[in-house]
Amino acid sequence: MADETAVTDTDATPRQHGEELTFNFSGGDSAELARHLTGRSLAARLPALVRRSFALAWAVDRRSTITLLACQVISGLLEALGLFATTAALSALIQSAHDPANLVAALPSVAVLAGAAGVRAVLGIAIQGLSNRLGPRISREAEYRMLHAATGAEMAAYDHPGFNDRYDKADRGVEVSRDMIGQSQNLVSSAATLAAAAVVVAALAPILLPLLVLTAVPQALASVAGERVTYLATLRTFHDRRMLSMLRWHLSHKEQADQIRTDTLAPYLLDKYRASGARVDRTVDEAAWQRAKISLLGSAVSGLAAALMWAGVMVLLGTGTIGAAVAGTLVFALRSAAGGLHGIVGYGTDLMRTGRYLDDWEEFIAEAGGQRLDRGSIVPGRPRHVALHQVTYRYPEAESDTLHEVDFEVRQGEIVAVVGENGSGKTTLMKLLSGLNLPTTGVVTWDGVSTRDLDPHALWRECAVVPQEFARWPMTARENITLGQPRPEADDAVRRAAATSGADAVITVLRSGLNTLLAREWWGGVALSSGQWQRIAGARAIHRDAGLLVMDEPTSDLDARAEHRIFTGLRELAKDRAVVLVTHNLSNTAVADRIVVMEAGRVIDQGTFTELTARPGLFRDLWLLQHDRISSAGLEGAP
Ligand SMILES: Nc1ncnc2c1ncn2[C@@H]1O[C@H](COP(=O)(O)OP(=O)(O)OP(=O)(O)O)[C@@H](O)[C@H]1O
């Protein structure tokens, strides 16, 4: 597969030395599927796909689905009826050439023909309308199921190579799912047209049936081969399409907009965009050309078979095997059959393509991208003791462990500070304490029960986390604090939490207080500064009233007054909570009952602030370094 996804090194931007971005391609199965894209497998798969699309439609709107199916069946029956009426009408018309009185005899058949055509037209409009109604509903349901599955995946899924690819592919499935019902109904209606025509041909001139099949087969095979070419091209452009979407995001989002300007980075990134785009275009062009050649061959062979069939009609007519009226009806039936066959091949191919994307979607929702939360069902109470016992943690696909045999504990009523240099594993430790990740070896316990055995959702209800990168939800200030889970005391609880984190000062100046929408200006909201947001994030965690409060650099953006307020309020919070605090500002650790010092994924020391500043070690070194800047500025002891 590697050769199929490899990117040719012929882009416009000169390659520089260094590692290139690679996306972990999880398309092995898809590539395998492409090799098995054969006429036989498609024929076997189409009925299942039609069933699947009607099952999806059934799930979102039963009444419309039943009506749609009923319209399809009636329309097919009317098609056959119309074709049979054609013979009677034609023979009466031909005889009327000799005796105009015979025209009257044609009237009933003509009436049937006209009636059937009229009703079919009305049914066609109804079918179209119902498909248009069902399509968007199916797509929304598909998206809902995918989002539901994504939120039910292990957190570690995001570190697993391939998870995001699976999500992207499933997302494509959602996009195309709306087309599936239309394609299925067109396929069914083409099949009904063909069946009706085939019944008429079989009744009037059975010898023509094999020739009819012969006109269809080459086109169908060409269509399948073309589809395989397109699919393989899609796989080959996977890397560049991902690259394009990543660049699109970086080039257009506000987060990097300032740096793109001040670093004059735009031309470099736009060049990369063009290079990836050019590679995609080249691959797509090659595939389109190859597909055109295959289609030409299929059409030529089908055309020959069609010529044979029409010659057959002429022979039957010339030898007197059939009369003029039957020959006329055969012309209608064969044209109808050709239309039906064309529809089956075209819509069948479309449906196969949609079906492949839907396979990816289905696979994702069945397994949450292979990362479904699969833990125990024990519901924890408010934790009194949370601990790590000899825990080692390695990120998925990482080359080495991030945490090594870590022992750690925190009890209700206690504040434990975790310190260490960048990359020493503090955030990773927080993720394990809060049950976001499970240890690779060793065990994390909440009141003696392993986090593996606890119901994860119940665990998270007892856990409040202020992560380094907290979410800035485009919702009101109130919702940003309650997260849709208000306490019985309603706004009183919100205001209390806000007062503890300093968010009250932010809310007071907002145009509509707690009702103010905190979102970007172009969404009609109010934009907050980083520090103001951090106060809201603090209030959010405090409002949860969970038994374990984990704060990872909760005051990094706060001014001195706000920071002071948080740390002086921490003891009150810890009365009925276990509090774990990660900070680089070592003065803040003075509030902790115990300080745990980490280095390179290990706990290397612990003690009180007084103990650790008094004895030699990493903590004292870091403390002196921070202190050094204050002394060298001559500010020590300044009021
Ligand atoms: N998602 C991830 N996948 C693989 N490795 C990771 C991931 N996240 C972190 N790491 C690695 O784990 C190590 C510890 O990271 P962690 O974020 O726990 O450190 P930290 O002590 O919190 O650092 P900082 O003080 O900079 O916040 C780092 O070397 C990092 O490379």
Structure explained in plain terms:
The protein is an alpha/beta fold. The chain folds into three domains: 43-367, ABC transporter transmembrane region fold (Up-down Bundle); 375-462 and 546-633, P-loop containing nucleotide triphosphate hydrolases (Rossmann fold); 469-544, P-loop containing nucleotide triphosphate hydrolases (Rossmann fold). Helices cover 62% and strands 10% of the residues. The protein contains 20 helices and twelve strands. The strands form three sheets. The chain has a six-stranded mixed β-sheet with strand order 6-9-10-3-11-12, sandwiched between helices. A hairpin with a 2-residue loop joins strand 4 (441-446) and strand 5. Helix 4 runs antiparallel to helix 11, helix 5 runs parallel beside helix 11 and helix 10 (266-318) packs antiparallel against helix 11 (324-367). It is elongated. The protein starts with a helix and ends in a 7-residue tail after the last helix. Residues 1-16 and 635-639 have low confidence and may be disordered. Bound molecules: adenosine-5'-triphosphate (ATP). Residues 66-353 form the ABC transmembrane type-1 domain. GO terms for molecular function: ATP binding. InterPro entries: AAA+_ATPase (IPR003593), ABC1_TM_dom (IPR011527), ABC1_TM_sf (IPR036640), ABC_transporter-like_ATP-bd (IPR003439), P-loop_NTPase (IPR027417), Type_1_exporter (IPR039421).
Quick summary:
The protein has 639 residues and is of the alpha/beta class.
List keywords for this structure.
disordered C terminus; disordered N terminus; binds adenosine-5'-triphosphate; 3 domains; 639 residues; six-stranded mixed beta sheet; Rossmann fold; alpha/beta; ABC transporter transmembrane region fold
